[in-house]
């Protein structure tokens, strides 16, 4: 039976390798750490979460919640790890990032051949052996040169950002309240600001000194992970409709909705570290201390990790890839993860899952399972392979790219739930029809 080579030990690569192993396909997983590290990586484990520890909403009325449930139904390693290492986060699924990566690393090392080497070109592989490139948005320059040799100059670049993490002990307990929006639990630390405090914070933020971005003349930023200072520069009230929105929150001290709220989310199960939700940033470290210290509850905050920006790379996938994530001109090579133009941890893992399943069925000589846009996973694959946009950009899953209902439903949550139920029924049908494990 043909062996499959998977390049990249991130979420997509680990998921693809795991799926292949489920079907008894020999697989080698290549990971360049620790031989070579990137500025965004800090640990040697596989499936490292370099930005947030949140996998976003876990509610079916939210498209990413549906995508996660589809993955659970399809036997996802990433979802198995996430569910086992989750920390409180209201309606979201957040994980202890160290435990999450350790869980996946242990499973991969136990069942799959792991090669700790950088792949710099494709000549080392038997041309008959399928390859899945899941090297992520921080793929090494040498590997991207090899990819350009196959695709031409079709790679794009943009900047991504991570939010700071603060010590729980350094948060002023007298200036916070615990709640989730709309009374959906009590999993967030809320740091309220008055109108005057917001005004001071805002003007300090937009005038703060940013770290230089090296290596790119056009500093494009992905809309879904925009630095908070870039967002603020769009207008005085922009943050009040974004990461500082007070909607759905009531401060028990005043029994009123605050003018603005900064939310903190647990980073670990013990509650010793908290992530500043939506505060991705490219401010210099000293400026982060100064400006974020203007948030009353964070006046004396101890920063365990400062926010950073890093380069991301993705393909102009429409025209290059087909709906099965195959490179059209080289069909033994597939791409998975953020390098394809899906955006987000869950979306990356979902593409890896489908890549693993498609490749396994191909090796076994069986018809490839068909996932269309009635499923979230299928809608993502169709989007990255068939988008007609002249300005193709990374895309999170949304109900907007899934097949609409045949009968119009005006209430958004009801409409989304009907689409979700249809999707999960379709996933069950696909599993039965093709014998998916």
What does it look like?
This protein is α+β, with helices and mostly antiparallel strands and 437 residues long. The protein has two domains: 4-154 and 316-434, FAD/NAD(P)-binding domain (3-Layer(bba) Sandwich); 161-311, Beta Barrel (Elongation Factor Tu (Ef-tu), domain 3), CATH 2.40.30.260. The chain has helices at residues 11-22, 63-73, 77-84, 97-111, 141-151, 195-207, 228-232, 285-292, 345-363, 376-386, 412-434; strands spanning 4-7, 27-30, 54-57, 86-87, 92-95, 113-115, 131-133, 155-162, 165-167, 177-178, 188-193, 260-266, 273-276, 303-305, 308-315, 326-327, 330-335. Strand 1 (4-7), helix 1 and strand 2 form a beta-alpha-beta unit. Helix 2 (63-73) runs parallel beside helix 9 and helix 3 packs across helix 4.
Main attributes of the structure:
437 residues; alpha+beta; FAD/NAD(P)-binding domain; Elongation Factor Tu (Ef-tu), domain 3; six-stranded mixed beta sheet; six-stranded antiparallel beta sheet; 11 helices; 17 strands; globular
* Cα gyration radius (Å): 22 Å
**Major sheet strand order:** 6-2-1-7-17-16
How far the N terminus sits from the C terminus, by CA atoms, comes to: 19 Å
- Number of continuous helical runs: 11
């Amino acid at each position: 039976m043909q062996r499959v080579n998977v390049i990249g030990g991130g979420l997509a690569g680990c998921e693809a390798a795991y799926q292949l192993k489920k079907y008894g396909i020999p697989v080698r997983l290549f990971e360049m750490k620790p031989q070579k590290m990137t500025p965004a990586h800090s640990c040697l484990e596989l499936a490292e979460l370099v930005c947030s520890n949140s996998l976003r909403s876990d509610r079916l009325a939210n498209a990413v919640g549906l995508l996660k449930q589809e993955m659970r139904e399809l036997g996802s390693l990433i979802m198995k790890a996430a569910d086992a290492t989750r920390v409180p986060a209201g309606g979201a699924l957040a994980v202890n990032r160290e435990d999450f990566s350790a869980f996946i690393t242990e499973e991969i090392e136990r069942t799959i051949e792991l090669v700790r080497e950088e792949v710099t070109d494709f000549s080392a592989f038997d041309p008959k052996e399928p390859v899945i490139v899941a090297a992520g948005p921080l793929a090494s320059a040498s590997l991207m040169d090899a990819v350009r040799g196959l695709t031409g100059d079709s790679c794009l670049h943009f900047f991504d950002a991570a939010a700071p993490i603060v010590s729980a002990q350094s948060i002023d307990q007298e200036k916070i309240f615990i709640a989730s929006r709309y009374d959906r639990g009590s999993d967030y630390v809320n740091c309220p600001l008055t109108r005057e405090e917001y005004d001071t914070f805002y003007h300090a933020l937009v005038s703060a000194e940013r770290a230089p971005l090296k290596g790119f003349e056009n500093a494009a930023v992905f809309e879904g992970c925009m630095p908070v200072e870039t967002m603020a520069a769009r207008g005085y009230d922009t943050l009040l409709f974004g990461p500082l929105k007070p909607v759905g929150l009531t401060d028990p001290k005043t029994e009123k909705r605050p003018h603005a709220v900064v939310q903190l989310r647990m980073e670990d199960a013990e509650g010793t570290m908290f992530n500043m939700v939506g505060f991705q940033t490219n401010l210099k470290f000293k400026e982060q201390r100064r400006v974020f210290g203007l948030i009353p509850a964070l006046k004396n905050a101890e920063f365990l990790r400062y926010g950073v920006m890093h380069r991301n790379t993705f393909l102009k996938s429409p025209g290059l890839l087909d709906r099965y994530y195959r490179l059209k001109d080289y069909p033994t090579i597939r791409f998975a993860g953020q390098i394809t133009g899906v955006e987000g941890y869950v979306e990356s893992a979902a593409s890896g899952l489908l890549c693993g399943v498609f490749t396994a069925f191909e090796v076994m000589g069986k018809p490839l399972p068909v996932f269309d846009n009635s499923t979230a996973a299928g809608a993502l694959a169709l989007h990255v392979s068939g988008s007609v946009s002249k300005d193709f950009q990374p895309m999170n899953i949304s109900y907007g790219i899934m097949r609409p209902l045949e009968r119009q439903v005006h209430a958004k949550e009801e409409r989304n739930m009907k689409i979700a139920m249809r999707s999960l029924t379709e996933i069950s049908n696909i599993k039965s029809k093709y014998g998916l494990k």
